[in-house]
Amino acid sequence: MIDFEEELKKFQPSLEVEDAEEAINTQNQEIDMATVLYRIMEEKSKKEEE
After folding, report:
1. Model confidence over 9-34: pLDDT tens digits?
2. Cα atoms in the 13 Å half-sphere on the side-chain side of 40
3. Which of 20, 21, 26, 44 could join 15 via S-S bond, C-beta 3.0 to 4.6 A?
4. Where are the domains of the chain?
């Protein structure tokens, strides 16, 4: 039998569309190879300037 009081304690309201979109985007930040290479080149340039 379902204990409704216990289930209500576990309840979490669903996110609004905008909030859900933001939560999904912040969790799934994938970086492509071009970005990785660009960052490596930037770091190398900064070290060479020092």
Report:
1. 888 877 677 777 777 666 656 677 88
2. 7
3. 20
4. 4-49
